[in-house]
């Protein structure tokens, strides 16, 4: 030390700076939970008036895509037992895009669809009438003993069918369509154009009482 | 030792002066993204997976409900329970809780309240539908089933 007296520039030892920073870094690494407000959006139906019976909605059986999930998490789709949900969203897409008995409005909707969706659209009279309001409804009915995970898996597939149709209409991928926030007018326009005429008609029935608590 | 030392005149040190800067950069990233948990979760939370996730934009409009098996079985039993804020509540108290949450929002935003339901994947639909029924009663109809992304194949 005595030898170096004459030297003017005396450097501060910065080597331990990294250690201090590391310590802080590790603290924040451990405590961090990257907030994720992601999920599947659902809008519940309005409150029921106890004095009034629920309104009778007349829908033909062919216009309803029935999905039943029992207490053992088994699926019954349109009266058929299925093992997994892999093909479910494709079936739902076929159901939504079916024009069994289109009226004039539905025909104009059909003409506005892009070619890829038009090719997909069938004219099966035994399936849904048209994708518009009252024409195609996807109904999910669970049991009180159905697991939440299974229910969400099915709902996810139904949503997927709709989002893929919407996205295809505006020429985006499904991921891009779902990322639209509707904040800017351009995004809002895309969002509305995707949905126009094809409302997301998902009916979630009150679960029945057997097999649950 | 000194014999060898003389040989190499070039310094072999890697300059480490930039190291703190790099670490600091990482540090700041985690400091900014960190959310210190302000409430203790009293129920088990294994969030289910889904693919069709949507993100909510306005965080102030979201209120959280946690549903799952209580962690403290000795005290609260094994049946799924609902947690709001930092206490376990009964299903019938949800209406009250929703109204309290609505009061925190400004007049114009009250009907836009969104409930983020963080339910454990083990929960059955029975308790879930009871909660949904109460939410309908409370007129908080926008509901988000919280889920984490699944890798699509």
Automatic annotation (TrEMBL), chain A:
<keyword id="KW-0812">Transmembrane</keyword>
<keyword id="KW-0472">Membrane</keyword>
<dbReference type="Pfam" id="PF02472">
    <property type="entry name" value="ExbD"/>
</dbReference>
<dbReference type="GO" id="GO:0015031">
    <property type="term" value="P:protein transport"/>
</dbReference>
<dbReference type="GO" id="GO:0005886">
    <property type="term" value="C:plasma membrane"/>
</dbReference>
<dbReference type="GO" id="GO:0022857">
    <property type="term" value="F:transmembrane transporter activity"/>
</dbReference>
<keyword id="KW-0813">Transport</keyword>
<comment type="similarity">
    <text>Belongs to the ExbD/TolR family.</text>
</comment>
<keyword id="KW-1133">Transmembrane helix</keyword>
<keyword id="KW-0653">Protein transport</keyword>
<keyword id="KW-1003">Cell membrane</keyword>
<protein>
    <submittedName>
        <fullName>Biopolymer transport protein ExbD</fullName>
    </submittedName>
</protein>
<dbReference type="InterPro" id="IPR003400">
    <property type="entry name" value="ExbD"/>
</dbReference>
Automatic annotation (TrEMBL), chain B:
<protein>
    <submittedName>
        <fullName>Biopolymer transport protein ExbD</fullName>
    </submittedName>
</protein>
<dbReference type="GO" id="GO:0022857">
    <property type="term" value="F:transmembrane transporter activity"/>
</dbReference>
<keyword id="KW-0472">Membrane</keyword>
<keyword id="KW-1133">Transmembrane helix</keyword>
<comment type="similarity">
    <text>Belongs to the ExbD/TolR family.</text>
</comment>
<dbReference type="GO" id="GO:0015031">
    <property type="term" value="P:protein transport"/>
</dbReference>
<keyword id="KW-0812">Transmembrane</keyword>
<dbReference type="GO" id="GO:0005886">
    <property type="term" value="C:plasma membrane"/>
</dbReference>
<dbReference type="InterPro" id="IPR003400">
    <property type="entry name" value="ExbD"/>
</dbReference>
<keyword id="KW-0813">Transport</keyword>
<keyword id="KW-0653">Protein transport</keyword>
<dbReference type="Pfam" id="PF02472">
    <property type="entry name" value="ExbD"/>
</dbReference>
<keyword id="KW-1003">Cell membrane</keyword>
